[in-house]
Amino acid sequence: MPIDVIMPQMGESVAEGTILKWLVQEGDRVEKEQPIVEISTDKIDTEVPASVTGVIKKILYPEGKTVPVQTVIAYLEAVEQTEDADIPEEKLKAAKAVEKAKVPEEIEKAEEKERRYSPLVRKLAQEYAINLEEVKGTGEGGRVTKKDVMDYMASKAVTSAPSRTEGETKIFERETLIPFNPKRKITAGRMVQSKRAAAHVTTVFEIDMTSIERYRELNKDALKREEIHLTYLPFVTLATARALKEHPLLNSSWTDEGIVQKNYYNIGIAVSLEDGLIVPVIQDADKKDLLQLAQEIQDLAQRSRTKRLKPEDVQGGTFTITNYGINGSLFGTPVIVLPQAAILGVGSVLKRPVVIADAIAIRSMMYLSLSFDHRIMDGANADMFLRRIKNILEGWEVSPYKKEISYEKTKSSPPA
């Protein structure tokens, strides 16, 4: 009896997933735990493995198709792993060699080429008159991906197929249609939903990061030996976790029955990818010291970019931080990640002249912007929360949290 391969639910609020790439073809034999398909949701990109050793009997949906979670996307027929165990190895090899010899070499090559090109890749090649043999494949086993085709088009300045009329060609030369990738499409839907549902308001505070800048400079060599990259973000995350405990209304959600206040503090850190954003979550951020936060942020960012996140890495967030300052932005008005109550934006740290005690001094300054749901709280609540973060960061030299960043801590703190 065929075994269902289903679109898994990769998070509590995830309702659908998109098939990015089939890693197998119908009729292929797969081993248990072998990845058979790449999927994408608004929270995570991952691979779905085979539940048993068997043969792919039927693929029900093509690449690029978005389907609800728990939908059957393929059928797998189980086979006994020991089915060839009674046949001597030499005879088995000889039989396979004979069977392979029956297939003409040119047919085998044609089939190999066919496996290298997905329907989307072939469609693009036809649309823009591209010889796919000239495109270098970077996918598994040399498979040509959509990105490979787009990169080839950019390098060769490909515009459109010769079959287009002159007028159509001019339009395509002056304008480029960029198809939605699955993550962009899902993210767009989430953002529109958030703006429609939550009453967005943004407040901005200016933070003097000079004390933290000095401490980073004093300790950078010791931390480098421990392979810890101590950016400004772990400081902001620590201050945010402590401020959330003192102002729990920021750590809540709106429901029809009332405001649900979360008594645990899981902070999501937005990570920018080539095809969009993903928000892995630091669980129980309030229970971790500065170096533990630095290690975990570093680990989550690396695994996000190499698509090695697990479903639990993107679940349970109660508050989100987005660090647009990494790209040089001073401040922004980030969109709330529903059902959370607020999101904190971290701007770039720049040295500039400021007035201190009626004197001009050069300080390392940063803007923090907080977008919050005005249904849940008023501006005073949001400002008190931001002021608490400001006080922790600006008072770092005399802060009780400063002791958490001693070099000795790096030797005893467990890795994230």
Automatic annotation (TrEMBL):
Respond yes or no to whether keyword Transferase is given for this record. Answer: yes
Write out the GO cellular component annotations: cytoplasm
Gene Ontology molecular function terms on file: acetyltransferase activity; lipoic acid binding
The answer to keyword Membrane applying to this record is no
Signal peptide region: none
Q: Where is each Peripheral subunit-binding (PSBD) domain found?
A: 116-153
Its EC number(s): 2.3.1.-
Q: Which cofactors does this gene product need?
A: (R)-lipoate
InterPro entries per UniProt: 2-oxoA_DH_lipoyl-BS, 2-oxoacid_DH_actylTfrase, 2-oxoacid_DH_E2_comp, Biotin_lipoyl, CAT-like_dom_sf, E3-bd_dom_sf, PSBD, Single_hybrid_motif
Q: Which UniProt keywords apply?
A: Acyltransferase, Lipoyl, Transferase
Its subunit composition reads: Forms a 24-polypeptide structural core with octahedral symmetry.
Indicate what this protein is called per its UniProt record. Dihydrolipoamide acetyltransferase component of pyruvate dehydrogenase complex
